[in-house]
Specification:
The protein has 187 residues and is an alpha+beta fold. The protein has one domain. The protein is 28% helix and 17% strand. It has 4 helices and 6 strands. The chain has helices spanning 23-30, 78-89, 97-107, 165-186, and strands at 9-13, 18-19, 37-44, 67-77, 112-114, 156-157. The strands form 2 sheets. The chain has a 4-stranded mixed β-sheet. The chain has a two-stranded antiparallel sheet with strand order 2-6.
Length: 187
């Protein structure tokens, strides 16, 4: 992300995230926010003790508050990315990037903010973040442009894992082939 010189902020949008509407609407609204780290579902450790990545998280002893976020759509300032890289190079930090990024940013005194609950919904205390529009599981099988009637306009959605007919046929052929091999091996 740091390779993109000349940009004050860099967005990362995973392939399985979508916005129900024109992405310009989303980016125009988000661009009003000057935070160094912008993501969804940002909570302190105290407010999300059950998060399954906490056991692997390590920070220097001077870090007093840990945060986690959900990052299929996130934006980082160049300053935040540089702090992140420098912090990881010290080898004093370990864990999932969805905890490392907001915790490092907050510890370095940078602005950490949620994209805005008005742009997504989810259930933070559920490990799948479900129900909601921006969740870990279950996945939707179509993007907004493929099935607009099944989306509420103006919200971020995640995950979307389409199963194209070609991929489905290839998978089924593979399963049949493995079944034949298994039958031959047992004969």
């Amino acid at each position: 992300m740091l390779a993109h010189e000349g940009y004050e902020h860099i967005w990362l949008v995973e392939y399985d995230a979508d916005f129900a509407g024109n992405w310009k609407t989303f980016f125009d609204k988000a661009s009003e926010n000057e935070a160094d780290f912008l993501a969804t579902t940002i909570f302190s450790k105290e407010d999300s003790e059950g998060w399954h990545h906490w056991p692997l998280f390590e920070a220097p002893p001077e870090v007093k508050t840990y945060y986690r976020a959900f990052c299929p759509v996130m934006r980082c300032s160049r300053t935040m990315l540089e702090c992140y890289v420098q912090s990881l190079q010290t080898e004093r930090w370990r864990g999932h990037y969805e905890a490392l990024m907001p915790t490092i940013a907050a510890h370095k005194g940078l602005r950490v903010e949620d994209i805005g609950r008005g742009l997504y919904t989810n259930t933070p205390n559920d490990w799948q973040l479900s129900p909601g529009t921006f969740i870990f599981r279950p996945a939707r099988d179509r993007y907004f442009h493929e099935s607009p009637a099944s989306f509420e306009t103006g919200f971020l959605y995640h995950p979307i894992k389409p199963r194209p007919p070609l991929a489905r046929r290839a998978f089924n052929r593979c399963v049949r082939y493995l079944q034949r091999l298994s039958l031959r091996a047992s004969a």
